[in-house]
Amino acid sequence: MTQTEPSTPSLTDRSTRPEPFFHIVDPCSVPVQRYYDRGFFAAEREHLWPHVWQMACRLEEIPEVGDYVEYAIVDQSILVVRHDSGPADIKAFYNVCPHRATQLTLGSGTFRGRQIVCPFHGWRWNIDGSSSFVYGRESFRPDCVTDAALALRECRVDTWAGCVFVNMDRDARPLRDQLAPIPSLLDPLGVADMKVRWWKAVRLQANWKLAQEAFLEGWHVMQTHPQLTLGRPDGFPHDNIAYSSHENGNFHFESDVTKYSPVDPEDVIGSHVEYMRVLGETFDVYPRPRDLHVLESLRYRVTDPGVFHQQFMARLFEHYAGAGMPLPQCTPEEYNRWGGVFFVFPNYFVLPMFGSAAIYRCRPDGLDPEACLFEVWAVTLKPPHEPVGRARFDGVFDKEDEMAWPLIPRQDFSNIERQQRGLHSRACQALRLSKNYEHGIGNMHRELDGYLAR
Amino acid sequence: MADSVAVRVEPLGSVVSVDPGESLLEAAWRAGLEWPTVCYGQAQCMVCGIEVVSGHDSIVPADGDETAAMRSRLPRSQARGDVRLACRIRFSGTSEVVVRKPGVRLGERTP
Fold first, then answer.
1. Inter-chain contact B25–A117, Cβ cutoff 8 Å?
2. Tens of pLDDT along A77-99?
């Protein structure tokens, strides 16, 4: 298949648009240009981002009527606003004045008096998007300033798992259709009830897809997170993860119980507790100190690993129930998803364990194909007496900032820019994917090609 | 929960009951008053500014944002006296507060 020049005709005119170039023909081979070619990025800008459900913010960022968040993607700015007191009373407006294109807000905040005000000429809208005041209206041709013409243009809005999702395509299929089958797998684990504990971002000189592919497999642990081998990297298993590519570009992995092997067969319980302690310390998402207390309280009390697991679950449930934030009742198959990774196309991840989870979102940083903003939320169940307040962004931190980033994210970030630079090597034409472990990456790219072809 | 503070707005003479955590502007809107503003509570226009007459014991000091906004956007000629932004000023205590803000009127409709 010949590759077209990026400057060829209109990407919006379907009759002349070139076929998706650099597209996936072999699921184990991803052409490198998909991560830096400007034409490819332009195709995503035109055919992916305006037509896909994407996570815009967490519900706890807009707890009160009038609260709003600015969601930015490529060159689009969208305001997500809680416009009334019902739980579903959320709207998303394009952040632009219909007069002379002034952005109505800079960043996130709260609209007071239920008014959105343009800072240029003082035109106003109610927070439901309807025009409320047009200063100087009489000076306009009437057809230019009808209420319909001035109403703020909206995007589709829906919610899932404690988050607001938006879609710029008014004709898009329902959110749940795009999310399937992830909600059926994840909802039983109660992630929707978790609240933000910390929320940080890093700017990486890398394509957004490349950055997030680090998390679409789990076998980089031995080399990238060697502390988790507890000093025993030889023979550290890589076949003990079950990877599942799903429809809609979605994907998840979880541990494969049939392939479980303890880190130290001579001290199964001890090495398990040690592993969890190191994971907790170097990830700062899970397991939380409360989870480790339960683990450690059984370490020298129980000698049979099967009994240990049973006792651990029972005591874990007692703790959470006693603290007023009960863990959900699930089947063993559902509990096995703790410690797994759940990916929702195009760019959203949930990693649940016990009463906590890590959430990732990766976006292009503006219009540069080789720049992205990678965000991490640590969320957790909180007891009912603890005030929640409005979720606050802690800031953008350098990928090597030891005070800001726990060791595990720092280790993951350290590979990504090296990959992005390596993509440009004349020796490198495509990524070579493991068919057993990395089909989630190919799965995502094939779904992307579907959007680019529309 | 702490009690509301009574704030008398002259020259209109209305007394606004301001709840803890709420600004004078928000309380005035709740009470059905119209208050001079063009930015509707974003601490940008400075039009809502008031002069504090008495009751300092019940007034929460301005935070960094309000102070920075007034320093940057309030002309010196309008900054004479004890000026605070109605959209940011909060209250806590028992003394009645008196402020002066010409242009506040009883509303036909509020936002």
1. no
2. 999 999 999 999 999 999 999 99
